[in-house]
Amino acid sequence: MIENKKLTTSSGESVGGNQNSLTAGPRETLLHQNYFLIEKLAHYLKG
Q1: Which is nearest to 35 in space by CA: 25, 19, 21, 46?
Q2: Of 9, 11, 13, 40, which is the most buried if we count CB atoms within 10 A?
C-alpha cells in the first residue's frame, strides 16, 4: 500500500514545497514571512 506523505512544519502545518522561498524586490531579498525556510535552516544548524 502506497502512503501519501505531506510535508509539514514542526508544528504540523502543511507546506506546499521546500524548494522555493518568498522574495521581494529586484535583488530578490528573502522575506522573514517565510517561516518554513527559517525553520528548515534552524533544524540544519542544530545538527
Answers
A1: 21
A2: 40
Alpha-carbon distance of 14 to 30, in angstroms, equals: 21
7 backbone dihedrals φ, ψ, rounded to 5°: -80, 125
Question: Could you tell me the three cell numbers for 27?
Answer: 535583488
Residue type, 4: N
First to last CA, the chain: 33
Interval 6-27: pLDDT, tens = 878 778 888 777 777 778 888 8
All 3 cell numbers of residue 32?
522573514
CA separation for the pair 2, 6 (Å, rounded): 13
pTM of the full structure: 0.49
